[in-house]
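Batch job 17 of 40 flagged for manual review because the log was empty.
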Amino acid sequence: MEPEDRRVEAMPAILDTVLPVYLLVLGGALTRWVGLTRSEHDEGILHVVIHVLYPCFILDNILGSDEIRNFGTVAWAAGLGFLFPVLGWAIAWGVAGALGYERGTGKRTFALSSGLQNFGYTAIPVIEQMWAAGAMAVLFVHNLGVEIALWSVGVMLISGDRSVPWRRLFNGPLIAVALGLLLVGLGWDRHISGSPRDAMHWLGLGSFPLAIFITGALMMEMIGKERPSLKASLGGCLVRLAIIPAVMLGVAKVLPVPDTLKQVLLVQAAMPSALTPVLLAKLYGGRPAVAVEVVLATTLVSFITLPLILVWGRAWLGL
């Protein structure tokens, strides 16, 4: 455990860490509100982020990382990355039933959106500011498991279909993680240096600020399009920002996993809901309005809960 005086100082330090994330979200929302950014540009920007900038950022952080040369760390990270979203969906499904949701009225969409944390862009700057570089590499391996869970169990949940769109897994970030793990495993990552590595680093630096900025703009697009429902907002916050963090931190406390993975799990536990379920609800006949409300509510409330969970969780896990 850290000394008492360090815990007292932790809240201001963590607030300083997470505040830039929300300022970027706010900046994106404001520029969309005043018309400086346009919705027709979103798709092109997101394609560049997902297929170019983000893969460069992933490779830049994985290559040369000693943390993921350990097979046990890789297995735990990917395995828990798969397990926790599935567990979160099961919890959210139970809460949805208790709230009176039924199939056809948003039960599947509520479960998918409440059970899945914003595992990528919002988590990246928090981990980068709070922990050493090794935690970032572990994050991307963890996210490999999350992506597999999302495009298998998650799609089956929202669609009610047992078929899995495996082709969706072949995207820029997952290919970058797989390539990075291969290069590290073979020891070839040590030979990637000089100008190519510098160019990769520069491209990667722009990935998460731009992604978070556009996220804010997309959220502004969502506001006011559907009548809010207290059931979705309060239920989503209960699941995503209270029940699931308690479960994740409880499991992280007892599992024999390295501290770098515990650091990743702590940040993941504190995250609001992801945006991806909004898109999946549109693609697979769900209720996008329910997903939008859960995303907006958990994001706004996480202004308060995120630093609290990080402070308390760090003391609980002894990080």
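Reviewer: the log was empty due to a logging misconfiguration, but the result itself is present. The radius of gyration is 19 Å. Unflagging and moving on to job 18.
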